[in-house]
Amino acid sequence: MLTGFGFSKFIGAARELVFAQVLLPFSRATVWIIVFVIHQPLRTVVFAFLWCGLIAEVSAQKKFAYDPLALLQIRDDPARHLTLRWQGTIRAEAGRPGSWIERFIENRFNLTLEPRFIVFFSYPRVLPLRMLGGDIADVTWIMARDVAPFSRHGFALELPWEVIRRHAPNYVRLLNANAPEMWLLTHNEGRNYGVPLSTIESRFPRPGIWRMDWLRNVGIDRVPATLVEMEEALRRFRYRDPDRNGKIDTYGMSTWRSPMAPDTMDRSFEEIFGAHGVLTTGWMERNGKIVWGGVLPEAKETLGVLQRWYAEGLIYPDYAVAPAGSIDLIKKLTSGMVGYLSGLAEYFSFDLSNNQSMAAVVASVQSGGEIVPALFPRGPEGKRGGRGVSFGESLGVLMFGRHLEHEPEKVVRVLRMLDEFAADAELFLTVRLGKQGHHWQWDEAKGLHPLPPFDLSNNAARELIHRTLEPWRTWGFYSLFGGTQAIADLFRTAPHRAFDDAYRNSADAIYDALGQAEAVPADLILGDLIQFQVTTYSEIIGGRLPLSHFDHFVREWHHRGGAQLTGEANDLFARRRWILDRAGVPPPVTP
Questions:
Q1: How distant, in Å, are the alpha carbons of 86, 92, 361, 363, 364 from that of 356?
Q2: In degrees to the nearest 10, what's the CA dihedral of 122, 127, 130, 132?
Q3: What is the DSSP-derived secondary structure letter of residue 590?
Q4: Sign (positive/negative) of CA torsion 473, 479, 484, 488?
Q5: How far is it, in rounded angstroms, from Cα 117 to Cα 88?
Q6: Which has the higher per-residue pLDDT, 433 or 474?
Q7: Residue-wise DSSP of 200-247
Q8: Long-range CB contacts (within 8 A, 24+) of 447-451
Q9: pLDDT digits (tens, 9 = 90+) for 75-85
């Protein structure tokens, strides 16, 4: 039997569990309804939790009324020393307090920083529990999908567009010029919460990779450019012994799946769907209306192609069950199981001087092994492309804790930091890469490269030093956005620029009509629907469900909440111009 302190600990743990797993996804009104329909003993406990929380909240509101526009009148005093509890990105698991980057920023901005690190895959569980327990950092990096629930439950500080424009004008200009749709991510119920974080990298689609030696071995001397040519190459990989071992033991292709899959950034077969003009995990505009790409007729047409390929053995059988983000997916190509892997080509993949690059690994495994970047295949109507993210969802949102309504000077100091990072290229490079000549160097032959001992990833990670400007890899712990195209171009070698122009051109990008699916405040519904879609797609591709089942899937998708989301997406699309006007985004110039 629990007594005394043990019972208090149990109640505290139970409170966090109930709120995290049961109450967090719902609005307060919904929660109060739940209270009166659940079993009586649990009702009493939950009622007590809610009642105490409500009394405390009402009491606090009587004592203090926060006026978010009052932040317009706050001026940053550089001479005033501030302490910031900083929960940075989830891509810094190896980081340590007292890093070189931390010390540099503290000296530059007269701060004491108290960094907090969180493991990548623990984010969805750990961060909400911390907040529910009242452990909220001053500054927290969050995923865009969490803006709505965190703001609704009082974790996030309202931050009017006007305040960001006043205190971070250079950052706002950068964002508005390159990624205006990002403002939709921080909007909830007519108000803005947090600062959207931009990147340039993910605007550009990422093509697949071919085994060029296999193509030659089966009588093909150039990279396939159409879906018809791609299908023929995959068929020959399966049945014409491309590795010349005398066995029929190879497959045509496998597909990359995001480490966060299933989510809206899942890249499964994206170039095949792109050849039919559809983005399956995003919103698309059709005849002035917003619709979910995954339920369009073009998606069904593509599934028919993939189902036929799978039945012929052109697709590796276990593509759907391999762990998302697993190195095993890459090994299917490097070890000679498949001759094509989708969605992973980048310049560094083909750097033979780096013995860890994909090209070097393939060459070491098989004599004469060679990989080349793919082209996005053209479909039956001449369409082609892959996912492009107009603003870089992966860089998320910078959220301020609600408690900073009592410490507004901290908000203004952080906005000033962002503004200086955006305005000063040298400063941005320093807080991202460290000190030139000590941590890194650049020359035309090697491009940007780390200096020893920071060429070892663990040494660099401990100091929060990044070894590249590729934004998808460099979620800066303090410099949270991806910089400008001009900065990236300065540090790309001529071959790198040529590669991107040829294979990762933004003209081949298919963009979400709202910038990102999570712009619609869907909470748990969107994740459940994507899981439902991914499961159904894999069942159809694998032949366990007939293609005709797609029609049932569409009806069920709408019934499970898709109809509600589509309505909300269209409402947001209608409000888009109002939001962009508040953020200072100029209207499009009409010819």
A1: 34, 21, 6, 11, 10
A2: -130
A3: P
A4: negative
A5: 7
A6: 433
A7: SGGGS----EEEHHHHHHTT--S---BHHHHHHHHHHHHHS-TT-SSS
A8: 447/491, 447/492, 447/493, 447/496, 448/491
A9: 999 999 999 99
The alpha carbon of 42 is separated from its chain's Cα centroid by a whole number of angstroms, namely 38
Residue type at position 235 = R
Cβ proximity of 378 and 275 under 8 Å = yes
Mean pLDDT calculated for residue range 536-565: 97
C-alpha Rg value of the chain to the nearest Å = 25
- CB atoms closer than 10 angstroms to residue 311: 12
* Residue type at 314 in one-letter notation: L
Residue ranges and CATH numbers for the domains of the chain are 16-65 (no CATH), 70-202+392-444+468-481 (3.40.190.10), 205-387+507-559 (3.40.190.10)
| Average confidence (pLDDT) over 403-427 | 96
Distance CA 84, CA 92 (A): 18
Could you tell me the two tokens for 362? 């393939």
The 3-state DSSP class for residue 165 equals: helix
Query: How far is the C-alpha of 186 from the C-alpha of 145, rounded, in Å?
Result: 9
Average pLDDT over residues 130-153: 91
Give 289's strand partners: 286
CA distance from start to end of the chain: 77
Q: Which residue has the tokens 């800066």?
A: 476
Q: Which one is predicted more confidently, 198 or 237?
A: 237
Q: Among 545, 516, 557, which residue's Cα sits nearest to residue 303? A: 545
Euclidean distance between CA atoms 206 and 589, whole angstroms: 30
Q: Which pTM does this prediction carry?
A: 0.80
* Residue found by looking up tokens 């082209």 in the block: 375
Condensed to tens digits (0 to 9), the pLDDT of residues 349-376 reads 998 888 888 999 999 988 899 999 999 9
User: Which residues make beta-bridge pairs with 202?
Assistant: none
